[in-house]
Amino acid sequence: MKNGSEFYVGYLPTPPALRRFLPRLVASLAGLAVAVAAALAAGQHVFEKSTFEFQDYRSFHGVMLERPYPMLAIEGQGMPWLLTATGKHGAAEMLRGLEGREVDLRGSRIYRGGDHMIEVLPQSVHPTGAGVVPETVDLGEVRLQGEIVDSKCYLGVMNPGSGKVHRDCAARCISGGIPPALLVRDASGRAMTVLLANDEGAPVGRAIFDYVAEPIAVSGRLSRIGGRLALRANPIGIHRGAE
Prior knowledge:
Strand content: 35-45%
Distance between the termini: 69 Å
Oligomer: single chain
Shape: elongated
Number of domains: 2
Number of strands: 13
């Protein structure tokens, strides 16, 4: 060319200057790709540790609670453990009429941090006698902010088990009777779940479906059942958005 620069033609040998430049270009692009990948990975949310011991059946003994959702109070285990059936089904029908009874049962553990659930093995529940029901403590009227999740997926069956990506699954699980929970965080950012019932202390039902996996504020009466928090709330008092 007139200015003396090299001109590359595909079917001719690569000019010397271009041969020296290409390796540096490829190395620079590779380094940039690694840096971008590292930045994206660092910016990803790390899922909290949760576990579902699928088909790893264990034996459990405790006192059965039916309201607002089936739970098993196990001596020395802190808050009562939530109970569920297999799949996207609650355990209310399976365990009906066992309030206050000591029972033996088998099932698979589902847990996240210090919160536990048991997926109960069908036909494994056997009453053994009368038990002592844990005390329920009334904590008064509160207004909480959080997100409605289905407790089974959140505690370990799926990850993340919360957020809009889990909305449809959560609605189906809650529809099937799995206990809905309000996922809240304290001032330090620590997450905890609060069982969500209607204002009569019964399962809250389909009235909350439109609010699942969205930031909400809800007013109601808070209680502690043997260490597990539950909120009695009228669904008409649920409002979208954090306050």
